[in-house]
Write a structure and sequence with these properties.
The protein has 129 residues and is α+β, with helices and mostly antiparallel strands. The protein has five helices and five strands.
């Protein structure tokens, strides 16, 4: 784990929300007082993703730290369209259903990520008020 990879992982944990690569570039540049290029940050994110420490939320083009990096599991994200907060849920039933459907199709899944967009409880409460 290089210093940059560790710093990016720390920034993702500190953010508390899905964070894009360019936000990370700005944060690292500000923190280190020297510029860092997009390829460098993307390589670090690719490494962290391959190690199971970070997940990419495709619909937001953003990254979040994995809640359970010690376990291999399918990613199920609930994403608030208002505040962009995300919650990762681990539900083996979803993984089982996806595996069954893939088998019926003769499809070999290499990665399974499910994203559900809607409104978080806090934003729904504000909207109802």
């Amino acid at each position: 784990m290089t210093a940059l990879r560790r710093r990016i992982l720390e920034l993702l944990w500190a953010s508390g929300r899905p964070t894009g690569a360019y936000e990370l570039i700005e944060s690292v540049t500000r923190r280190d007082s020297r510029p860092v290029g997009p390829p460098t940050v993307y390589r670090a994110l690719d490494f962290l993703t391959a190690q199971g420490l970070v997940s990419r939320i495709e619909s937001l083009n953003a990254y979040v730290p994995c809640v359970h990096p010690e376990r291999d599991h399918d990613c199920l994200f609930f994403i608030c369209s208002r505040c962009r907060a995300s919650v990762e849920l681990e539900d083996p039933r979803i993984g089982g259903l996806l595996a069954e459907d893939a088998a019926v199709l003769g499809f070999v899944a290499t990665r399974r990520t499910v994203e559900v967009e809607g409104m978080c409880a806090q934003c729904a409460e504000v909207g109802a008020a």
